[in-house]
Amino acid sequence: MPDDTKISRKEFVKKATLTGVGVSVAPFSIVQAKNNQKVRIGFIGVGLRGTSHVEGLAERPDVEIPALCDIRRDNALQAQKIVEEAGLPSPELYTQGETDYKRMLSRDDLDGVIIATPWLWHVPMAVEAMKTGKYVGLEVPAATTIDGCWDLVKTSEATGMPCMLLENACYFRNILAVLNMVREGVFGEMIHARCGYNHDLVSNNVLMTEGGDFGPGTGAESNWRTRHHINRNGDLYPTHGIGPVAHWMDINRGNCFKTITSTATKSRILHDEIVERGGHNHPKADIEFKQSDLVTSTITTANGESIIVTFSTTLPQVHDQDYRCQGTRGIWQIGNNSIYLKGVNAYDEWEPFDKYQEKYDSILWKKEGENASGESHGGIDYFVRKAFVESIKKNTTPPIDVYDAAAWSSIIPLSEESAAQGGHPVEFPDFTDGKWMTNERIFATR
Amino acid sequence: MPDDTKISRKEFVKKATLTGVGVSVAPFSIVQAKNNQKVRIGFIGVGLRGTSHVEGLAERPDVEIPALCDIRRDNALQAQKIVEEAGLPSPELYTQGETDYKRMLSRDDLDGVIIATPWLWHVPMAVEAMKTGKYVGLEVPAATTIDGCWDLVKTSEATGMPCMLLENACYFRNILAVLNMVREGVFGEMIHARCGYNHDLVSNNVLMTEGGDFGPGTGAESNWRTRHHINRNGDLYPTHGIGPVAHWMDINRGNCFKTITSTATKSRILHDEIVERGGHNHPKADIEFKQSDLVTSTITTANGESIIVTFSTTLPQVHDQDYRCQGTRGIWQIGNNSIYLKGVNAYDEWEPFDKYQEKYDSILWKKEGENASGESHGGIDYFVRKAFVESIKKNTTPPIDVYDAAAWSSIIPLSEESAAQGGHPVEFPDFTDGKWMTNERIFATR
């Protein structure tokens, strides 16, 4: 790992001062953390997702959880109990409304903070956390606007505090094996990839209740998530798909996204489902949802590859993140979990991936697969949490950094812009300011 | 079938006269054909593809093959032998160079003609055939330019002679079962489809010889097809993919293509393969192929659906036409040949398609599947040939008509235009002049 990814307090203060960012300078506690090998992590948002992270981190011997914040006291109490039952000191709770997270962030005994709140809170909370000297672990997507992406990048640069996107999909066992193969040149030169997030969140009552309702008080995600479908129309959730692909293609490390074209279909499901569940007189039956049922995007890269990204969380379908990795020497796809390699496989014949999975298995999974697989999402959450904790302990740039967070999340607003213009290509901002040309790989290299 | 799809000699002559198209008015022989129930079909191009059609038609009791044309006399002799061995009168051969097809078309004893020549010959030959009063069966793609598409449409309208695109993929057994399901509303309202032509034509020496050569005299398709990869860059072969989808979506019959955005990757395989096979001093090693290794397109429709179309004939991969049919109630995809229907299948669980294949099996396959499956391409060629012959016998518009031929083939030049502009959306011409709004379905309805 190059030295310049280290974070020093000196650099942090210097940058914060030079750029004039309003920083509440908190005692920089990472050095202490390194000494006692316990990192102290606070949580903003302990709903379904945050609680899952609490459970995972409470089991780690190198983590303490001194503080928990949630606007719902029930959530906080439940998470507190989990921490206590793990034998850790009971965390202090911050449940006094929407801005109580700021009070928590003003503590000087937190090394890092995990943010797992509704999307629109991600940027202000992460920005505040960095300004108070916390190492940030941010749930996906990092931001939903280009300004939000820039805010994260600029604040991280100004404060010297890292912001890791907690993109668990990057740690799928097959995704990591394919990454090893890409890096060893098994697929030749990269040409194309596919990915997406196609997951029916209607039938399982995530986006609406059984009665067809959504909005505040209706459910964990229907509380806030469905609202985005009224006013937006784009790929609202791109990072589970694009994260793995970005690593295959060395995005921000020798390569970068160039343009995106996005196409939106008509919008049917949410309206029809409300009527089906609640009748034409349902109070939400006359809402016109702007979000289409399926958004398809094509991204181009500086190195001449293309990427198809799909998004649908309303259509009835089998959950499919649709990964495909294609190069000049072969192809792997998740659909049949099979591979075809030139000169290896008989013409036009797929080979099951199993043999390659074993041969190119990630060191992470080889070492800790058994421990990991008992944890949430089949183990990938274990690895993303571990990466976060280890980055704090080692005082390094996280393997999925603020530039990745910005580039991947920027697909949301860029896809909206393109779709609104009938698929007109839109250029990606360069959040790295040219450093994508010289940045070294940091994901899954150590 | 509506009466206005009938072709009358009166109408034919009237149209030809009114529009002033230069027509060599040939005796209109279709009425005679109907009486003796033998249709007389000539062939232009009896290479691999044309010969396959000769074999198939020679077996039909309702077909005679009085004439064969090919610039290679060997091809013509071989096809002649096939006809003779089927017990039919020996066809006259036209092998005196590139324009000898005109001499064949001047005959007055041909009801129809099948054209299976290199792509650039399709339009001039089909136009001449229609002008001489022949019912045209045209191999795919119909044309490679927008002007070519219009030439076919205008000539067909002026002469009253139909031009059927011989798109065999429309007759796949699963494609037709899915079509029945779409028409019965099993998938709800159509939202999305995928299709493509991804077929490694390099490894099997179609696009170049074992020594890395191509061009005149090198092979059946490397003779002419590879040349397109030097100067063009688009989806060069869209109809196998889009044909089935067009029927699912009623394109030109209540719906139409609106826009296309196309994205081209870098170009590697052809150059690298030439060098790999013939070394850096190979005479073709310094050719810069403009055609990228993969072109992905997204098409929008008047009814608000989107279609992803992919094209690659150079990358090492397993042949994949990548069909997917997705509506508001469910999805079918060819990758795992499985289906998911809302309210039928357990959440997030695919069901194998077999049961549906049986239930919604096309009447064509039910009746004649056994006969058909012995023929080329697993039987689909039997059905496309039968449709052509039956259309002539019944004196009707063919099930895949000149407007379909134009719309589907126009993807080639439109994708080139879009890709050249970095994915800028390009509008489809309306070859039907608005009649797509009122046209009735004709494919697989009788």
Automatic annotation (TrEMBL), chains A, B:
Residues 39-164 form the Gfo/Idh/MocA-like oxidoreductase N-terminal domain. Pfam families: GFO_IDH_MocA (PF01408), Glyco_hydro_109_C (PF21252). Keywords: Glycosidase, Hydrolase, NAD. Residues 176-352 form the Glycosyl hydrolase 109 C-terminal domain. Its cofactor is NAD(+). It comes from the Bacteria. GO terms for molecular function: hydrolase activity, acting on glycosyl bonds; nucleotide binding. The keyword NAD applies. InterPro entries: Gfo/Idh/MocA-like_OxRdtase_N (IPR000683), Gfo/Idh/MocA_oxidrdct_glycsds (IPR050463), Glyco_hydro_109_C (IPR049303), NAD(P)-bd_dom_sf (IPR036291). Belongs to the Gfo/Idh/MocA family. Glycosyl hydrolase 109 subfamily. This is Predicted dehydrogenase. It comes from Fodinibius roseus.
